[in-house]
Amino acid sequence: MKETNKRSRGGVAWCPSFVKAGGSLRTVVAVRPRVFRSKIVCSGSFGEEFGRVETAVRRRAPASAWIPRLVRLAEHEAFNVRSASRALMLVRLVAERHSPSERVKLFGQPLSIVVLNGRRGSDVASPRDLASFVFHLCRCTNAGIRLSGARQDLSWWLEAALRQSGQAEALDLWMCIDGARGLTVPTALTEAWFGRMMDLIAAQKLPVRQLVACFHSFASWKDPPTLSLDVSDAWTEEIIRMTDMDGLLDAQDYASTLWALGKLRVRPSNPNVVTRILESLMLQPVDMTQGNGPHYSRMYESFSPEQMSMILHGLAMLRHDERLREPKRAEILQRSISSWIEASKQQMSQFDPKSASLILYSVSLIGTQISGLHEWLHIWALEAGTRNALLFSGPGLVLVINSFARLRVEPHEAFLHRWTTAFDRNLNKMDSRGIAVALHSLAMVHRRPSPQLVRQCCTALRSRSDPISVQSLTLEISALSRFGLDPGSDFLFKWFLDTELALRRGEFQCRSLANVAFALARLRPLLPTTFCEAFLHELELHLHESTPRCLVQFFWAFGSLSELGLRPSNQLREDLHLRVLRNLPRVSPSGLITLSRTLLIFHTEEPGSDLWNRIVESCKATINYNPGDLASNRVILELHDLVRRFERLSDPSRSMR
């Protein structure tokens, strides 16, 4: 039969494809009106009426003109699983043209009738019909169309899919798995799908690209399933087998695989899975025996910024696998990322804000030394970043500046100017955490925003009603203290109130307490009595968890803030001093400077006391450890100056000379 005749009789065309769109796999479903008409065996009047409904949809008639007719069709005796799937597809496509509130109002009740009456003949329905129905039903639910009794109906249809899972083919499986995104799927059904996939893999009836699509869809679920070792090994071994067969997989397939591996937290038995994929993705020039010079491989031709963001995001989620940090695999990882960085310089103008922000953030999480990364960052910030900074959304702006801070790279002034403009425009749309992270990141890259922008941020933070986390409270006050700008009494009043409530709920850990204390010691505001009581109570509970850095911060804070209200009890002060003494060998040179300044500025100890002498000895030992650095190291020079001041205070006769 010719294709034109097939279409004229209404064939449904399903064509899963892999489209480079936003770094994710998408399913291409033929949605042209002429394809809507499925092969339903029914009476002439029923089929003709369905055709008229489809014509109304094609002509964009108001929903009120065809929804009642669709409901009457659903009550017809010829209405079955296949026609219900057809109806759901129509409604889903039309519902996407309406706002979420209109979807519920217009389509909720009609879809309930379609779902209920679509059960007719389900016992004899094919796996493909059931899969098609589940796909469209789940998509309707994910689109926000709430059905009456939806949970019961969805459960029934998922169980029907479970009964047919043993006969499902690759396409049927993928349709169900992809459609179930956003739903809570019963464990029994997930295990049945996994079992069927194992059978298809063993029989070599699951094409590798559909295998990749299935696992990508699993990873896209609201609650991604936990893979057993057997399933993850079967999947990854099949991927490795396919990497040896040139031409079957391209960069999109490998990107989707790495992203799914990371999202599903797969830890396969074979530790070489990731490195084999990385080797296949290596974008190195290939010398041709004929032609005008070197060119890149086919993998390079199918490589895009969206795929690069997916790959790096997947690797960032896999960073906790210690096997990737072994020397040989770490080298392959570094060379792979370096090759992508180098090749992507030719596509710099194609980096949209979403891809660029995800790439920067993922690289900062991976934490490996990457050749050419800083140069790439500067090129991007100067070229693409400067052009696209105004296109970033709130989350993208935060991710980008936070990535620069994590990588300890100061962005170009032109980029920073446009970033600040975009941040100012998006300020009202951002939550408290986003504002706090952005301010803290600016401080980390040594960029001080204008006092006007800081005031606007403080006003926005003060007016937010969303729940504020301990991390946000800590980052807010730390950033403002680094800027050295007065946040204003209104902001401080709300901040102290929110922080005190979090302290009394026991939400602070030792590190957050230390960062807050150190930031307040910089700002030196007047401290509310109730806040000080709550803070000291929590510190007594957490002081034993302190790292040397935390102990240094507490020591400085008590010296700076005692006269402002933060006065520890004698027992707490003695406990802190004992812990500082025990940890002095582990305190960094900059920490020794802070301890020394505390003694010299705030006179927290008398000259000649045990703590005083031990700190002086530690400073001298640090200077003598490598005297060759004395002239070049600023920290050592400052320690040398502090030791001389200590000696003058310890021996008054020296100060007279």
Describe the structure.
It is built from 33 helices and 4 strands. The N terminus is likely disordered. By secondary structure, the chain is mainly alpha-helical. A two-stranded antiparallel sheet has the order 1-2. The chain has 4 domains: 221 residues, no CATH class; 101 residues, no CATH class; 69 residues, no CATH class; 69 residues, no CATH class.
Topology overview:
Layout: H1 3-8, E1 14-16, E2 27-29, H2 44-58, H3 63-74, H4 81-95, H5 100-117, H6 127-142, H7 150-164, H8 170-179, H9 187-202, H10 208-219, H11 229-243, H12 251-263, H13 273-280, E3 285-286, E4 295-296, H14 298-301, H15 305-317, H16 327-344, H17 353-366, H18 373-382, H19 384-388, H20 394-406, H21 413-426, H22 432-444, H23 451-463, H24 470-483, H25 489-504, H26 510-523, H27 529-542, H28 548-561, H29 570-583, H30 589-602, H31 610-625, H32 634-650, H33 652-656
Antiparallel strand pairs: 1-2, 3-4
Helix pairs in contact: 2-3, 3-5, 4-5, 4-6, 6-7, 6-8, 7-9, 8-10, 9-11, 10-12, 11-13, 12-15, 15-17, 17-20, 20-22, 22-23, 22-24, 23-25, 24-26, 25-27, 26-28, 28-29, 28-30, 30-31, 30-32, 31-32
Roughly how much helix do the residues carry, as a percent range? 55-70%
Give the overall silhouette: elongated
Distance between the termini: 110 Å
- The number of helices is 33
Features:
mainly alpha, two-stranded antiparallel sheet, two-stranded antiparallel ribbon, 33 helices, 65% helix, elongated, disordered N terminus
